[in-house]
Amino acid sequence: MDLLAATALVQAYTSLGLGIIIGLGAIGACVGIGIMGSKFLESAARQPELVPMLQGRMFLLAGLIDAAFLIGVAIAMFFAFANPLLSKLVAG
């Protein structure tokens, strides 16, 4: 296999992997925030006096869930723009 075909193959598989990383990360973050939001609304309806405390914790957890997704996006963008697999291919 020549270098051009191998480079195209690595880029194609990397693109598929990026789509899977970002897609599954987005689905997981959306499901996590949806479940957390529904539990927040349920607990706020049961005990309205705890809403300020629960709201602060809900926003903290929403930030952590989004941070995990954004870390996955950052790793995916690293592979999209500075693919270390291509440098190993050229060196080898």
TrEMBL record:
<keyword id="KW-0812">Transmembrane</keyword>
<comment type="function">
    <text>Key component of the F(0) channel; it plays a direct role in translocation across the membrane. A homomeric c-ring of between 10-14 subunits forms the central stalk rotor element with the F(1) delta and epsilon subunits.</text>
</comment>
<dbReference type="InterPro" id="IPR002379">
    <property type="entry name" value="ATPase_proteolipid_c-like_dom"/>
</dbReference>
<dbReference type="GO" id="GO:0008289">
    <property type="term" value="F:lipid binding"/>
</dbReference>
<keyword id="KW-1003">Cell membrane</keyword>
<comment type="function">
    <text>F(1)F(0) ATP synthase produces ATP from ADP in the presence of a proton or sodium gradient. F-type ATPases consist of two structural domains, F(1) containing the extramembraneous catalytic core and F(0) containing the membrane proton channel, linked together by a central stalk and a peripheral stalk. During catalysis, ATP synthesis in the catalytic domain of F(1) is coupled via a rotary mechanism of the central stalk subunits to proton translocation.</text>
</comment>
<keyword id="KW-0813">Transport</keyword>
<dbReference type="GO" id="GO:0005886">
    <property type="term" value="C:plasma membrane"/>
</dbReference>
<feature type="domain" description="V-ATPase proteolipid subunit C-like">
    <location>
        <begin position="16"/>
        <end position="78"/>
    </location>
</feature>
<feature type="site" description="Reversibly protonated during proton transport">
    <location>
        <position position="66"/>
    </location>
</feature>
<comment type="similarity">
    <text>Belongs to the ATPase C chain family.</text>
</comment>
<keyword id="KW-0406">Ion transport</keyword>
<dbReference type="InterPro" id="IPR005953">
    <property type="entry name" value="ATP_synth_csu_bac/chlpt"/>
</dbReference>
<dbReference type="InterPro" id="IPR035921">
    <property type="entry name" value="F/V-ATP_Csub_sf"/>
</dbReference>
<keyword id="KW-0138">CF(0)</keyword>
<dbReference type="GO" id="GO:0045259">
    <property type="term" value="C:proton-transporting ATP synthase complex"/>
</dbReference>
<dbReference type="InterPro" id="IPR038662">
    <property type="entry name" value="ATP_synth_F0_csu_sf"/>
</dbReference>
<dbReference type="InterPro" id="IPR020537">
    <property type="entry name" value="ATP_synth_F0_csu_DDCD_BS"/>
</dbReference>
<dbReference type="GO" id="GO:0033177">
    <property type="term" value="C:proton-transporting two-sector ATPase complex, proton-transporting domain"/>
</dbReference>
<dbReference type="Pfam" id="PF00137">
    <property type="entry name" value="ATP-synt_C"/>
</dbReference>
<keyword id="KW-1133">Transmembrane helix</keyword>
<feature type="transmembrane region" description="Helical">
    <location>
        <begin position="12"/>
        <end position="37"/>
    </location>
</feature>
<keyword id="KW-0472">Membrane</keyword>
<dbReference type="InterPro" id="IPR000454">
    <property type="entry name" value="ATP_synth_F0_csu"/>
</dbReference>
<feature type="transmembrane region" description="Helical">
    <location>
        <begin position="58"/>
        <end position="82"/>
    </location>
</feature>
<protein>
    <recommendedName>
        <fullName>ATP synthase subunit c</fullName>
    </recommendedName>
</protein>
<keyword id="KW-0066">ATP synthesis</keyword>
<keyword id="KW-0446">Lipid-binding</keyword>
<dbReference type="GO" id="GO:0046933">
    <property type="term" value="F:proton-transporting ATP synthase activity, rotational mechanism"/>
</dbReference>
<keyword id="KW-0375">Hydrogen ion transport</keyword>
